[in-house]
Amino acid sequence: MNVEWIIFFYMAVSIAMALFDLGFAAFQHARETVFVRRNERMAQMLYEEIRRNAGFPTPEHKSELERQLKTLSGLEAFDQSMDHLEHLGKAERDRYLLGISEVFDNLAPLYMNRKELNQAYFCYIVKNWYRPEEPSPVIDRMLMLFLQGDTVYLRQNAFEAIAGQGNVDTMAQAIVAIDASERFHHPRLFTETLMSFPGDKRALAERLSGLIDGLTPSMQVAATNFLRMQHMGDPQWFLDKMVDESASQEVRIACVRYFMSNPYEPAREPLMRLAASTRGGEWEFASVANTALASYPGEDTIALLKNSLSSPVWYVRFNAAKSLYDLGAQPERDLKDILDGSDRFAREMLAYRWSLEGVPLSNTEAGEEMIASC
Q1: How far apart are CA 206 and CA 234, in angstroms?
Q2: Please, are residues 253 and 225 in contact by the beta-carbon 8 Å criterion?
Q3: What span, in angstroms and rounded, lies between the C-alpha atoms of 55 and 52?
Q4: Which residue in 273, 232, 117 sits closest to 252, CA to CA?
Q5: What do you get for the CA distance between the two ends of the chain, in Å?
Q6: What is the DSSP code (8-state) at residue 88?
Q7: 186: alpha, beta or left, given left = phi > 0 and alpha = psi -120 to 50?
Q8: Is 132 strand, coil or helix?
Q9: Nearest to 367 by CA among 341, 355, 358
Q10: Which of 24, 105, 110, 220 is deepest in the core (most CB within 10 A)?
Q11: What is the pLDDT at residue 68?
């Protein structure tokens, strides 16, 4: 009897799970059908309004659009519909978006009191489709508030929406605000957003140069990476920070990379000291510094890089070999002592690095060893 009850119970559970799966699939299908139809209606409404009144949408249209954009599904339908209307031409779409900019202004107070998921999506819509003639104070206030959000999605979308406006002053305020929130935000996200800034990047770089000393280490890393790629900033500040052993390790490494792309002769000696460092825990500095030295040609640089080929750290040897190749070191002339020497690791790293560049050292003992090991 007990076995029969167990079998019946198992069958009941299996049937319940099957019914649940079928019901959920039916719900998803119905939801998708409703969403597709909503998209079609939204696209048709937008298309007709753009064709009739691109520059001057009617009050009735703006009122209906505002009503629909109060929901997450409405925001998604609007986003997809605008994407599908790209065939109308950018100029015509921009005229329409300028005409409905007040709709976003009216929705901002509403979304300030919504869940962070809704707020994040609204920021995404603002970034993509908000085209005011002049930035709205209510939108700026909302985005600044969202920079203090608990989720990275909300903070990042708000930051990207602010960046999309192309205003240097607002961007500088946003950087200070999000840095002061003391919530971790990956430096790479900051740097990528700064690089996407559609306004005057040089003016933004100049503003960042003035702010960088007061930023937290995480934000200093992001700012340093941006200034490195813009070839701007005060090199002396980066040099002082690079040699300051009390500074954050991430900031110091970012400064080393800065001098990789922006050669600065006073940085040569400090970079060589870092590249030659054998202190425990400093292999990251040695690794990056050996890469940076590719921008500082000279016999002393070649000699130091050759010494780095004997490092016990693979990354240091690899980067040293790459820098030697980038500096144009000739195997027969500059590296013969290494290739004919007794340090197998150094020989194999040179052969490996040269083979990656399509120039195998097949005529050397190291090259033969590499071929034999494959």
Answers
A1: 10
A2: no
A3: 9
A4: 273
A5: 67
A6: G
A7: beta
A8: coil
A9: 355
A10: 220
A11: 86
Low pLDDT (below 50) residues in the chain: 364, 366-367, 370-371, 373-374
Tens of pLDDT, residues 42-67: 667 776 776 676 667 888 888 888 98
DSSP state of 86: G
Burial tier of 44 (Cβ tally within 10 Å: 0-12, 13-18, 19+):
exposed
Cα–Cα–Cα angle for 72, 81, 121, rounded to 5 degrees: 30
Distance CA 29, CA 308 (A): 62
**254-270 as b/e: b if 16+ CB within 10 A:** bbbbbbbebebeebbeb
Helix 168-180 to helix 201-211 angle (10° resolution) is 40
Rounded to the nearest 10 degrees, how much is the dihedral formed by the CA atoms of 106, 112, 115, 120? 80
Q: How far apart are CA 80 and CA 130, in angstroms?
A: 15
CA distances from residue 232 to 118, 196, 207, 292, 354 in whole angstroms, order as listed: 38, 17, 11, 17, 33
Per-residue buried b or exposed e for 95-131, using 16+ beta carbons within 10 Å of the residue's own CB: bbbbbbbebbbebbeebeeeeeebbbbbbbbbbbbbb
- 8-state DSSP, 270: H
